[in-house]
Write a structure and sequence with these properties.
alpha/beta, Rossmann fold, seven-stranded parallel beta sheet, two-stranded parallel sheet, 9 strands, 33% helix, 18% strand, binds 1,4-dihydronicotinamide adenine dinucleotide, binds ligand LXAUTJHC, Epimerase_deHydtase, carbohydrate metabolism, glucose-6-phosphate dehydrogenase activity, NAD(P)-bd_dom_sf, NAD
């Protein structure tokens, strides 16, 4: 039977990477949500709901009949101030989780970020940790260690997921996304190359979040880069993630 998937933040970069990769997937019925109305230049393979995730009633309505939520909507800026991350990333995310359990949703993938753990990149470790021969790894079992308020908001989204899993049985996977860029990794930016997530690996990873069975997980969302300080072993094991790209293949 087709899976009904609610994608919040559908108009954004990550949302569009997912939709470009999975738009032809006949097993999914998409409901797309964003506060910005659809524009002609983007990919929208389903019903579109224009709503703000801080609007509880609108989110409850958008959640009706949904099996899986991919929750991306939020302020993605690492410089985002508290005045923005509190409503958009924390309150809004709690509203989406709450509506999900109210509607009997099975699975919930939360777009967390490398910035939830940014403060592990200490002066002593950098820039060595961005390089291929360095063995430092974060694997998702470490405590969050944000280096900015945006990272605090993402760590909070992960903890909300823990709560909604433990109290309500919602399956939750928090994907600490690295740096999504199209066609090639960031240029002259070692950190960005170490955490590159290609568009096709992004679509595949979120496809696995829809299909796999899990309880509560924190995984890293990067391609299989030679340079890396995030382990992708848990994503491989639990989700069946098989990335095909590597920033080292791009000069
Ligand atoms: N692009 C990247 O490399 C990374 C992205 N992420 C996370 O992935 C998610 C998506 O990021 P991007 O696509 O890059 O950002 P984006 O800004 O391109 O897309 C975010 C979308 O969410 C919508 N949105 C924002 N606040 C909203 C609200 N209150 N209600 C409804 N819609 C709202 C925006 O209109 C926008 O279309 C974010 O949560 C971000 O923190 C995490 C790590 C890396
Ligand atoms: O969470 C995010 O992280 C990526 C990568 O971070 P950066 O500090 O290397 O730029 C960022 O591009 C994206 O906008 C943000 O949402």
């Amino acid at each position: 039977m087709a899976q009904s998937v609610l994608l919040t933040g559908a108009s954004g970069r990550v949302g569009q990477a997912i939709l470009e990769g999975l738009a032809d997937e006949r097993e999914y019925e998409w409901r797309l949500l964003d506060r910005d109305p659809p524009t002609g230049d983007r990919n929208y393979p389903g019903e579109f709901v224009v709503a703000d995730i801080t609007d509880e009633e609108a989110v409850r309505e958008a959640m009706e009949g949904i099996d899986v939520v991919l929750h991306l909507a939020g302020d993605p800026r690492k410089t985002a101030p508290w005045e923005s991350v509190l409503p958009n990333n924390i309150d809004g995310t709690q509203t989406v989780y709450e509506a999900a359990v109210g509607a009997g949703v099975d699975k919930f993938a939360f777009a967390s970020s490398n910035h939830a753990v940014g403060a592990y990149e200490t002066d002593e470790r950098t820039p060595d940790m961005y390089r291929e021969d360095d063995e430092f790894r974060l694997d998702g079992t470490e405590l969050p260690r944000p280096g900015n308020l945006y990272g605090v908001s993402k760590a909070t989204g992960e903890i909300l997921g823990r709560y909604y899993h433990d109290e309500y049985g919602l399956s939750v996977v928090c994907v600490r996304i690295g740096n999504l860029t199209k066609d090639h990794p960031p240029i002259d930016y070692e950190r960005g190359q170490a955490m590159w997530l290609s568009h096709r690996d992004c679509a595949h990873l979120f496809d696995r979040c829809i299909r796999a069975e899990y309880d509560y997980e924190v995984v890293y969302g990067i391609s299989d880069n030679d340079r890396k300080y995030y382990s992708i072993e848990r994503a491989r094991e639990v989700l069946g993630y098989e990335p095909r790209d590597n920033s080292a293949d791009h000069g």
